[in-house]
Write a structure and sequence with these properties.
The chain contains 25 helices and 19 strands. The chain is of the alpha+beta class. It folds into three domains: about 150 residues, Glutaredoxin (3-Layer(aba) Sandwich); about 325 residues, Glycosyltransferase, CATH 1.50.10.10; about 80 residues, Glutaredoxin (3-Layer(aba) Sandwich), CATH 3.40.30. The strands form six sheets. It has a five-stranded mixed sheet with strand order 1-3-2-4-5, sandwiched between helices. It has a four-stranded mixed sheet with strand order 17-16-18-19, sandwiched between helices. The protein has a three-stranded antiparallel sheet with strand order 8-9-12. A hairpin with a 7-residue loop joins strand 6 and strand 7. It starts with 13 loop residues before the first helix and ends with a helix.
Length: about 675
């Protein structure tokens, strides 16, 4: 019998289209849907997920594709599906509801609410039938029907209380609240949760959380605290050796289900790759450890090979599942190794820790008997000393397994293009160019920037959030502006091309007009043009990615340094004061924000490279950018790029090379050699 599509069939989101033939009568989020619910006086079943979400697939298979469950849902509810990656504004609101109601959250996110969008129940994954651990969706539906019909007034009172909590206003701080004690408290909180056996900051599950590591790098730099750097080095090394890293194709899976970074949820997200690249690259700048550089570059190779669209921007994610099984694309049996790596079997088993019955741990063993996740016990550098011809053999094995794997059915590619995540990709590729001088990375960053300007930016510098099948749509949110501006600043750092700062300034001006709270400071997540939300929230928590408000503080700080415009400094101060009281209680939940406090409390540095010998200027620029210099701007003044008026005083055509090093706009005696500049920089923080 041919399946009939529901109302999602005309959507562009791959996630929504996955559900377009469910027997559940799914609706998209729009005012027409809410009007239907009001007219029929039905509660709404809101389900939020994303295409690479494993448990979203499980719930669809168990319940949303089940005719019995679908009939119950269609009788009791108006059912709405939302792609959290398309509509993070909706997801943020109702995820907060779930966290308040249950103490935790996750996806799939399940919300029951009235037609006026006020929620009265929240949860995540529900099995079809109730068990000793979870209520089943069938029982949930029956209970919801009974409560809606017989206890409506109590439900609405509860929903109104929840909206009041969502609208809770933060206390605004003062300048004196922005102090070093928050920074040190953040470090000690992170140190107390550090997992010393395998790295990271939890037992299980384990998420990479790159901004925790970025904070620790900065804390090491300014406070000379070796413990902070040791935590970063240990964690990045363990992640690189573990199964969370794709040893054949490069890139990182979303998180590890176990303590050892061995068994991942196998989806790959664009934002994880970009943020981890930034973290590995800056740690390479500090340590000069090639493992970190190579990990970053292999991850970028994965992105440009498998995630880059022909139009020059990056797709969103790759699924965890293929052929209905999580991780099938990535795992190996010993028989496959014997068949395809004749002469290299023992080497492969020993290097990648393979076992006859599979190397999954604990509860995963039964499900994955005989399957192996490739992972290392030793770094490639250490393995050189353990095996003859290691590099040659290692390259052959990886190349052979890569070619075999490419013949398998790939996980689903979520081919929508998201503006915010592409801003992060620009930052990652720009920083890679800065460190390696590989112009391919620069060209990719520039092409992605140009895609954003040409495809998802209008003439007033307003951003759209999503691009799919040649169609740009969905009003941009704060993440879009924050991360694109971040990418433009990194591109400026890599090139000294002030056009990037001009564009960033126009985007910032637009963002201030439509997102900024002029009374209490801080940016709302949704634009004032977004009219279909029950509340406008300010997001600060640095979760899987840094919050847009944290990133905006960094953006404002650097725009102020580069342009010398007081308006950016005023916004920066107001933003810090707006959130500082909230951060003080548990600063380790806001590590990217606290990183900006470190920069704010320490003197900034301008390093300006001028002269009449372009080759010497470029050599100095490359050499100085090998250093880890947070809170610094290194600018080369060359004829290729226009420079703002306030910097023209530094233009010098009388010397082959002249380097100005300035702290908080007070310049030291200029020097004429890279060596002298390095000596000065080594003596000042």
């Amino acid at each position: 019998m041919e399946k009939k599509p529901n109302k999602l069939i005309n959507e562009l989101s791959p996630y929504l289209l996955q559900h377009a033939y469910n027997p559940v009568d799914w609706h998209p989020w729009n005012e027409e849907t809410f009007e239907i619910a009001k007219k029929l006086n039905k509660p709404i079943f809101l389900s939020i997920g994303y295409s690479a979400c494993h448990w979203c697939h499980v719930m669809e298979h168990e319940s949303f594709n089940d005719p019995e469950v679908a009939q119950l849902m269609n009788e009791v509810f108006i059912n709405i599906k939302v792609d959290r990656e398309e509509r993070p504004d909706i997801d943020h609101i109702y995820m907060t509801v779930c966290q308040i109601m249950t103490g935790s959250g996750g996806w799939p996110l399940t919300i029951l609410m009235a037609p006026n969008k006020k929620p009265f129940f929240a949860g995540t994954y529900f099995p079809k039938e109730s068990n000793e651990f979870r209520v089943g969706i069938k029982d949930l539906i029956k209970r919801a029907k009974e409560v809606w019909e017989n206890h409506y007034n109590e439900l609405m009172e509860s929903a109104d209380e929840m909206i009041a909590q969502l609208n809770f206003s933060r206390e605004v701080g003062t300048n004196s609240d922005i102090n070093e004690s928050i920074v040190k408290k953040c470090f000690y909180e992170l140190a107390s949760t550090f997992e010393s056996q395998y790295g990271g900051f939890s037992k299980r599950p384990k998420f990479p959380i790159p901004h925790n590591l970025m904070f620790l790098n900065k804390f090491y730099h300014y406070y000379n605290n070796k413990e902070a750097l040791d935590m970063v080095i240990f964690t990045l090394t363990k992640m690189r050796l573990g199964g969370i890293y794709d040893h054949i194709g490069g890139g990182f899976h979303r998180y590890s289900t176990d303590q050892e970074w061995l068994v991942p949820h196998f989806e790959k997200m664009l934002y994880d790759q970009s943020l981890l690249v930034l973290s590995y690259l800056e740690t390479y700048q500090i340590t000069k450890n090639n493992l970190f550089l190579n990990t970053a570059l292999e991850t970028l190779d994965y992105l440009k090979r498998d995630m880059l669209s022909p139009e020059g921007a990056f797709y969103s994610a790759e699924d965890a599942d293929s052929e209905g099984e999580e991780g099938k694309f990535y795992v190996w049996t010993i028989d496959e190794i014997r068949k395809n790596l004749v002469g290299y079997v023992d080497f492969t088993i020993n290097v990648f820790n393979l076992k006859e019955n599979g190397n999954y741990r604990e509860e995963a063993i039964q499900r994955y008997t005989g399957k192996n996740i490739l992972h290392l016990t030793y770094t490639p550098e250490d393995l050189k000393n353990k095996f003859d011809n290691f590099e040659e053999n290692f390259f052959y094995i990886k190349n052979t397994l890569f070619n075999i794997r490419n013949k398998r059915t790939r996980p689903l590619l979520d081919d929508k293009i998201l503006t915010d995540w592409n801003g992060l990709a620009i930052a990652a590729f720009a920083k890679a160019y800065l460190i390696t001088d590989n112009k391919e990375y620069l060209n990719i960053a520039i092409n992605t920037r140009d895609f954003i300007l040409n495809k998802v930016t209008n003439s007033d510098y307003e951003l759209l959030h999503r691009y799919k099948n040649g169609i740009a749509g969905i009003t941009g949110n704060l993440d879009d502006y924050a991360y694109v501006i971040m990418g433009l600043i990194e591109l400026f750092k890599a090139t000294s091309d002030f056009r990037n700062i001009e564009i960033a300034g126009k985007l910032m001006d637009n963002c201030v007009s439509h997102f900024y709270d002029a009374d209490k400071g801080g940016f709302y997540f949704a634009s004032d043009k977004q009219t279909d939300l029950i509340v406008r929230k300010k997001e600060l928590y640095d979760g899987a990615i840094p919050s847009a408000n944290s990133v905006m503080i960094s953006n404002l700080m650097f725009l102020n340094k580069i342009t010398n415009y007081p308006k950016y400094y005023d916004l920066l101060i107001n933003n810090l004061k707006s959130f500082i009281i909230s951060v003080t209680n548990v600063p380790s939940a806001y590590t990217y924000f606290v990183s900006q406090i470190i920069d704010f409390l320490n003197q900034s540095k301008h390093i300006i490279i001028s002269g009449n010998n372009v080759e010497k200027i470029n050599d100095a620029f490359r050499e100085l950018n090998k250093l880890y210099l947070p809170n610094s701007i290194i600018i080369r003044l060359i004829e290729q790029f226009d420079i703002p008026d306030w910097m023209k005083i530094y233009k010098n055509n009388n010397e082959n090379l002249i380097i100005y090093i300035c702290k908080d706009y007070n310049c030291l005696e200029p020097v004429n050699t890279i060596e002298n500049a390095l000596e000065i920089l080594n003596n000042i923080k």
